[in-house]
Amino acid sequence: MDIQPLPGEPCVLGESPLWHPLEQRLYWCDIPGRTLHRHDPATGVHDAWPFPQDLGCVAARDDGRLLVAQRDGLVVFDPADGTREPLVPAGYDTRIERFNDGKTDPRGRFWVGTIYEPRDAARAALYRLDGRALTRIAGDITTSNGLAWSPDGHTMYWADTKAHRITAWDYDLERGLPTNPREFARFEPPAHGSDYAGRPDGATVDAEGCYWAAMFEGGRVLRFSPAGELLQTIHLPVRCPTMPCFGGTDLRTLYITTAREKRPAEEIAALPWSGRVLQLRVDVPGLPASIARSA
Fold first, then answer.
1. Distances, alpha carbon 69 to alpha carbons 59, 121, 172, 258, in Å
2. Is the dihedral of CA 186, 154, 28, 238 positive or negative?
């Protein structure tokens, strides 16, 4: 399997890759680097915009702008001219919590979770954006990640990275409500002398309804059937992948953001692509990213 990095400098903590279905370009965030990146594979042009705060995720909007989750709230960003418009403030203590993984459901509702940075209690939450307000839907986790929907939109996936657990929910598309949570996959936490396979970070779903999970500190991406059966393992030349997404004109290019934050010097020397965006070709295409409603 031919895995290559995109050109450019590595991120500190790359996250939230988004293949824009209208622009046909790839966006992603460097969270502590406070930068939004964009790559055009057709031209090789790379753009980057600095932000004043940590960035958790980015989503496309139906008005041609982007929805960006900063630490202190959601903002609407126009990459054409760089203008930013505050949309809704965060409803948590920004000194110890920030927005993390976010995705748009098949009906255009934007969802975003948080990370409780002390990581000593399950105090993070998952929110749904309703107009100019955030509605808290679920909680009792430490690190919200792994948001994705099945092709028919009737299953929602959500992961708690610290708990090493992925949950599947029945999803009411009409009302935008998840119900009937059940364990989809669980992973063993690290143990002395064990071969640690990592913990579930960001994720995506392909056209066959299979769930692709980046395993942070596990150096791999896993593909699960809709029933939770492990179908494929892709080993990567980095230890900390953070999220996959499908892109390219045929949605068969898998892009994977990665991290190098707080990694030991010897690991970076051995795995120099840490922090880069990786790309590889896959057999099954993904689904086009849903576009968030602006009203």
1. 9, 23, 25, 19
2. positive
Q: With H, G, I as helix, E, B as strand and everything else as coil, classify residue 267.
A: helix
Assessment of whether the complete model's pTM goes beyond 0.85: yes
CATH number at residue 184: 2.120.10.30
201 belongs to the catalytic site: yes
Q: Are the C-beta atoms of residues 173 and 182 closer than 8 Å to each other?
A: no
Write the CA distances from 212 to 59, 197, 219, integer angstroms.
Answer: 19, 15, 14
In terms of Cα–Cα distance, which of 10, 28, 23 is closest to 202? 28
Q: Is residue 292 part of a domain?
A: no
Question: Is the pLDDT at 40 greater than 90, yes or no?
Answer: yes
Q: Which one, of 190, 231, 195, lies nearest residue 213 by Cα?
A: 231
Choose the catalytic residue: 160, 201, 250, 283.
201
Task: Over range 5-34, report the average pLDDT.
Answer: 97
How many domains, the chain? 1
| pLDDT given at position 54 | 97
